[in-house]
Amino acid sequence: MTQPTTDASAGPSGGFLAEIKDAVSTRAFLLVLGVLALQLAFITSYIGAFHHPEPSRIPLAVAAPAEAVAARAAQSLGALPGDPLDTRTVADEAAARARIEDRSVAGALLVDPAGKTDRLLVASGAGASLSQALEGIVGRAEAAQGRDVRIVDVAPAAAGDARGLSSFYLVVGWCVGGYLCAAILAISAGARPANSARAVIRLGSLLLYAIAAGLLGTVIAGPVLGALPGNVMALWGLGTLVVFAVGAITLAFQGVAGVVGIGLAILLVVVFGNPSAGGAYPYPLLPPFWRAIGPALPPGAGTYAARSITYFRGNDAGPAMLVLAAWAVLGAAVTVVCAVLHRGRGGPAVGSGTPDPAARTTGP
User: How crowded is residue 143: how many other Cβ atoms within 10 Å of its Cβ?
Assistant: First the structure.
């Protein structure tokens, strides 16, 4: 008598629970939990940073024909409840404009003791929300003393740069391109390069992508859309550095943690980096934690440098560029070191679509 055969394609026979266990591996379950945690962190970070902007020690220069008058005005504004302003006196209007131009202060109050109207110099190119905060704080203080204030925008945002946010959006786009390019390299050829040569190939491919992305982003934001009137070559260089730095960070995380490294890069750049970048709300309006970490992360450094290039002739962009360069060097170094430590059989060419043998032990 012939025995019945079992169809192997029918799946496990332990019922629905067994089907779930067979369909969803422990690794996949843990990765989904990681995605959920990343999503909640994203919501928490953005709402936490933006839900209640509060001015804190906005740097403001004060000038008057007599030094004593300027000192009294600066002391009065510096003593406002909540410390919204960090005041300092300067010699005259020329000195005040110079301090705004070099980004030492966000604005300047020019006191006219012979009249009832003072002038407030602001720079909306550094962020409309910051200049508006200054206008509100100084305006209320002046009104309390029976004085009027006239607003003069000495570094206005371009007509196509709504609220001075185009620099931020451009940098965010560059950051997205950086970690997506690195992620695609991982998907196509394994999360970890098989050896140091493959690591260098990935970094070289990333650099070529960064050069193209930096140029195209600059052209779209500048000549095409007319949003950013800054020097094209300088913005191109900044874009290349931003894209490469973020991509190198992502490659480094992948070298350390495999495919999980992509999530770690998103955590650093998107969850922590974007809310603290000073885009919608510049640093003096952010909560202390976000204000502290922003300048040290690629989105914040990139946004600050982009605004400096666009509206302040590149003044004070140097420190932000050094931050980006440091991330780029660190990411590239860690990527190569991890490739050396995890070296194995020669892997396929980057982007070939063939799985990397050295990455098989880490899962798909």
Answer: 11
